[in-house]
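Researcher: Quick one. two chains, 523 residues in total.
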Amino acid sequence: MTFPLLTVLGRMTLAFLQATGSVTSFAFQAIRLAVQPPFYRQQLLRQMLEIGYYSLPVVGLTAIFTGMVLALQSYTGFARFSAESAIPNVVVVSLTRELGPVLAGLMVAGRVGAAMAAEIGTMRVTEQIDALTTLSTNPFKYLVVPRLIAGIVTLPILVLIADIIGVLGGFLVGVYKLDFNDTAYLRNTLDFLEFQDVFSGLVKAAVFGFLITLMGCYHGYTSKGGAQGVGMATTNAVVSASILILTFNYFITEAFFAR
Amino acid sequence: MNAAPAPMAPSKIFLRDVAKSFGSKSVLQGIDLDVAPGESMVVIGGSGSGKSVLLKCILGLMAPDRGSICVDGEETVGFNDRDRARVMRKFGMLFQGGALFDSLRVWENVAFGPIQSDGMKAEQAREVAVAKLGAVGLGPEIGELFPSELSGGMQKRVALARAIAREPEIIFFDEPTTGLDPIMADVINDLIVKCVSDLGATAISITHDMASARKIGHRIGMLYEGKLIWQGPVADIDHSGNAHVDQFIHGRAEGPIRMQVRRL
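Model:
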């Protein structure tokens, strides 16, 4: 009975290694092409608008409620130790280091990663990608490269805005519900905040932007077999991007803060 | 790669011993094909006979497992991206489903090649697009619509306008009349004949519509089980002396061709 189990494990390992190699090769091809002309600026701007501007409402809502909940939860916990004054610090550090980039990343993965996989996947199965080639346009350069660059550039901006909105959420709860002095709350927030807190969050955001767009493009570009294939590509793009975000989040945190 | 050299007479497209397999399924098994400049070649064959794979191999969308594919005497198998893009400049392709970019307006679809690949200014490309839409019988107002707002026949026309927008030397037609009613199919056939002759282009079409094949082709070849089992002038198709061809052109269920009803 051991051997069939080993066979299955072996197959899964091989499939995992094959997928990893395939994604890595896809990413390297994109990076190689990103530095070669022609550059499709209009596509880049369109994708930045799609990833950044149109994700603002969902990311903003996530951030403000996260900041509010964080302040409220910290208060109920910290009140037991009479440590309420640490709340602004906890809110801003948690948001900038962790919750801002991770939650924004997960929300964008659901919104943008899925849409990218569906759009590129549909283009694949309806031969639109082949049509690009016949029009002397490298589909990889036209479709994949602008999305990857837009993801890397836009997500840090989005996270910076999410950080500010999240802190505002904490501030609103702190001042209007928990009776903090508004000036003291803001001073506490700013005094405890370090450059590295924000910077590490923005580095995470750039990496997450790359991972989300890479997964969306990869699964869309390699999708097969009509509507079902496109559906599967969309699911795989969101699931793999989410798992990668959480995995890379740990390693980046360790790189920045582990002693 | 064991391939014969290009013949003395200059073929526009020249294939020798082209083979392609997917896993254990051998789709093309050594195709030899010569298409002269200005000639319109039609490849007929049943579904799954390898017609689309043949076109994709010539276009470089798929790499053949072996064989030689020359365009204007230039070997294209193994081309890098830059050379591929250069040779692709000679090609126009009408895809079976149109393959129009659904995020772009009709005129942007037609002007895509001139703008993105040839660096033409948008205003000038728009004029080209309107002219090409006119050539396929569509008014300039259609240019402002999105592909999803058009009927199947109109989409085919737009796709044809896009295929001829860069005035290619070679045009491929993949099942140009599939999914159209007989009258619209004939309209598309007429447009294909007109566009190809106006441009003086070389054409390869793949179809299983015999009315279309007779109308748009100078020469017909039949693909069966990955091989070109017969080729000759359109006029000879009715007395080819080949039982497979006879069965196919008359659409008979009985004959040497057995329909494959289960997957291999």
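The mean pLDDT of chain A is 92.
Researcher: Thanks, that's what I needed.
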